[in-house]
Amino acid sequence: MKLKIQKRLAAQMLKRSQKKVKLDPTQLTEIKEAITKKDVKDLIDDKIIKGIPKRGVSRARARKNEEQKAKGRRKGIGSRKGKQTARTPKKAAWMAKVRSQRNFLKTLKEKEIVDNPTYRNLYTKVGGGFFRSQRHIKLYITEHKLTK
C-alpha cells in the first residue's frame, strides 16, 4: 500500500517532517481511502494519524554548568578568553598589590619593627611601584638592616 500522499498531507497539516508522522498500522485501509485534506484532517482528529512530538534540546547540562560556575569552578586556562588584563584590569591588580603592601607596612609599624622615618621611606617606595610583593619588602628590610 502506498500512503505517500496521505503522509505528505498529514505532515503539512501537523507542521512536521514526513518522518515525524505515524500512521496506525491497523487502520491502513481507512487511511488509503483518505485522498483530500479534509479526510486526512478527520483521521488526525480520530487519532489514526499522529504526529511524533518535536524533541527539544535538554537544558540539564547547561544548568549543571551554570551551577558549577556559580561555585567558582570551570575557570581554568582552557575556559578563558582574552588576556589576563581583560579579566582583571591592570588598575585593579595594581590597587590590590599596593593596598596589601601598605597594610603590611602598617603592621610592621604597629609592631614597632620599623621606625617612622623608615616607614615613610618604604611607604613612598610602595607608592612608586618599587616592590614586587610583601616578600620583596621583607627582603629589602633585611638586606638594608632597617629593623629596629
The tally of strands reads: 2
CATH architecture of the largest domain: Orthogonal Bundle
Radius of gyration: 38 Å
The CATH topology assignment of the largest domain is: Non-ribosomal Peptide Synthetase Peptidyl Carrier Protein, Chain A
Write the element-wise H/E pattern from the N-terminal end onward.
HEHHEHHHHH
Taken from the alpha-carbon principal axes, the silhouette is: rod-shaped
Distance between the termini: 104 Å
Number of domains: 2
| Overall SS class | mainly alpha
The percent of residues in helical segments reads 55-70%
CATH class of the largest domain: Mainly Alpha
Low-confidence stretches: none
Provide mean pLDDT, rounded: 95
Taken as a percent bin, the fraction of beta residues is: under 5%
Major beta sheet summary: 2 strands, antiparallel
Q: Taking strands numbered 1, 2, ... along the chain, how are they ordered across the largest sheet? A: 1-2
The number of helical elements comes to 8
Which oligomeric form is depicted? single chain
